[in-house]
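Retro notes, structure queue

What went well: the backlog is down to a handful. What didn't: a couple of records were mislabeled last round, so from now on we paste the full input next to the output in the thread. Example, using Esterase from Paraburkholderia caffeinitolerans:
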Amino acid sequence: MHKARAFRPFKSLALLLASLFALCLSVPGWAFQTRIVSIPSTAMNRAFGATVVLPDDYARGSGAARYPVIYVLHGSGGSYADWTSNTHIGKLADRYHVILVMPDGGHESWYIDSPFDPASRYETYVGTEVVSYIDAHFRTLASRETRAITGLSMGGFGALRIALDHRETFGAAGSISGAVDPRNCEDEPGIDRVFGNPARHADFWTRNAIVEDADGFAHAHIALTIDCGVSDYFVQSNRALHDKLIALGVPHDYAERPGGHTWPYWSNAIRYQVLFFATSFRHNGWHSPARQV
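Corresponding output:
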């Protein structure tokens, strides 16, 4: 007669815990740090919030390693908290060993220094003051070769505008679903406050439209990436910009993917853009801390 084998709960529990531990080790951990900082603006005589995401090895390292920086701008009506609230962008800081900075650009600033509203000086703020603050307070690689800027919608316009006007600061730039022709946005509430009346100041609207200033990229030597969803209402103006860049012989990365003017599209697109920038940094001689170990 066979004896029944006794059930050993402690041994089974130990095996279960060991299995769970092994599973945890096989799943990549994300230990990036998110900080909210207040960055002052002399140009606008006030301070604005900004989100800074530091890769995990920023804190774990020796304290000597310095990192490239990618500035990521929000869209119309948004804030510095948009990207971290709606996407998993923080994981990209860990994956590519970069610092991500998301400054506040106001609700409808279009990231320009408006001649019609002297209190709206967001190009100076983001393109100069924010960069100076980040370089002074974090371990950055403070060169144009290791600094990039991108953004969505209004922020896509702003990123390209700032990159063109501050080409000594940014060596790479991108646009996601960018409003590259603000003349298509005349009905946007508040846009005339910074661009002026579209009828009386049509020349200012045209002069600042990225599609009309594509030749500015011909001699800027900026690593450029642009994408837009095929269902996005800005896709035609992005195609027009792409065609002009081709005609001018400007090297750039251009993509259209399924999707519209929505967070699911932007959440996906930012992954490709950060990869593009990290590749650009490496081409310029940067080696991530992970590769230096």
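Agreed that this is the format going forward. Reviewer comment attached to the example: The radius of gyration is 23 Å.
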